[in-house]
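User: quick one
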Amino acid sequence: MTMTPRERFQRITQFQEADRVPIDTGSHVASLHRISYRNLRDYLGDSDLKNADVILDRMVQNVIPDEKFLQRYHVDFRWIAPNWINVVDVDSDKYRDMWGITWQHMIDAYGVFESPLAGATLEDLDRFNWPDPEHPDLWKGLGERAKYLYENTDYVLVGDSIKGGLLTKALQIRGYEQMFADLVGNVAFAEALLDKLLDLYKAFWTGFLKTVGRYVQMVYFTDDIGGQQSMMISPDLFRTLVKPRIKALIDHIKSQADVKFMYHTDGTVTPVIEDIIEMGVDILNPIQTSALGMDTAVLKELYRGRLVFHGAIDVQQMLPFSTPEQVRYDVAKRIYDLGRGGGYIAAPCHNIGADVPPQNIEALYAAAYEYGQYPIQLDHVLSEEDRRPPTQAEIAAQSTVEKQERRPRRSRA
Amino acid sequence: MNDHDELLDALYNHIIDGEREPVVKATKEALELGIEPHSILFDALIPGLEEVGRLFEEGTFFVPEMLVAAKAMTGAMEILRPLMAETGAKPIGTFVMGTVKGDIHDVGKNLCNIMLEGAGFKVIDIGVNVPEDQFVEAIREHKPDAVGLSAFLTTTMPMFIPTIEAIQKAGLRESVKIFVGGAPVTQEYCDKVGADGYAPNASALVRELKTVLGITS
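Assistant: Done. Structure below.
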């Protein structure tokens, strides 16, 4: 029996199987770069595929995918993103956002150029020109759109992030190196900045959810704590300084609306997934399988029935450098590992970059739809090795990191 | 254990703990006690930073701990560098480092610089968003043993290719080892673009670089 997207979402977030694995695309960190979107449009020869120039997030240069795209690829979600306010064009290459952070153009995206609190002291935090969380333009048009979609469609509606989370925003506004150093060397400042951001984000979410809260089934924010080879900060530091504040923000959000909460962090985060669950996270995104230790079979084994996984289709190593056949195989593997028993939403693990061939985009969505039909039967697709359960050793290797003691000094021989 | 050893032990531990002011203070005390700058560097500071690198690779230390250790090291080096220049001490090698054109990420690059300097290399940082010809110019000017190309994105790492080509065209390819690195970069990609070396993190870079250059210390 075919289910509506909302029914499907409800089932799989209760860790039950539905008619098929839901498919998602369209958030500010999981859409398509404008170049890959245009390449896809040209490949399909479909000049009616709109929005190639409708930018969702100026920093990453992705698009708001056309409704035609979303329907073609069976996307179950529709995203409602806050408006950007007070953006200033500094010159042809740079803009300044509402936080006062200056971004510089790179090949096909923007990176932090100048951080306004780079030299700030504790006292400066009170004097800083913070964005106004009650600025009316932030939510302009969003309530009407959410209401319309809620009443006239069955899609799962999601409130997208107010861009950047507590740690991410602190790193950008203070400067990455300075903030990293503050976290261990100037803790009072780091905590004061994180607290300031927490207060602001709470106020932002109050306004956003007042506008769309009764229509959305899920909300989302991004706060990266993972790197390619290890976490960006230690699990201890995360638990002491970051986790309690993210939890407070999630508690606040859930007190404003009846929603599932999805948390986004790139990179490897295996040592703190229990902490992430404790923060009140229902759904973890994006499961970057190209980062060290993010093994989908092990993750499912460890957190089955406690955490929904979202993403896992890698945009960094897999999608750009695979053949369409390899893409199909990888999608099958993620669905097999994460989708059985519910608890998985198939999606690219970040924006589909300019370097991903259109054939691979087609393969991704076709495979997610075809292989995602319940009951999952992929014995004919996946090798025996890719279907075996993880060993105890593999599970232990992922979930425990032994702290090393420092060795005493040795003089040169 | 004598006073010298106690001080060097303290310095070593202050470096690992990333305590800049105690490092500066202990460095001055060590000099007053008559410990050679060379010994302060090679018996305490460098071993300390190497230990930080090891703890990073073992998953006990993370970027913040590494950054404050590096800042502490800089505090000592500001005092020691002029003294060592007087005695004619030479760096163990020279490294030119830059983030490729189209990319302005620099945290990973800067960590590599710090670990390389900590290991005794002279590092010339030519910044971010560096066009091919500036890499070529820097190699001509500084005659480094090796050059590092950094990229943070899969869409900017292809810039390794024209940069390496430019170095080749300038006739400098044989005189310099080329290292590539950054989050999405792999050994496979390093081989594909024809670089000489790759490392997944700053501490591993020091090791790989020493191996490629045949430095045993």
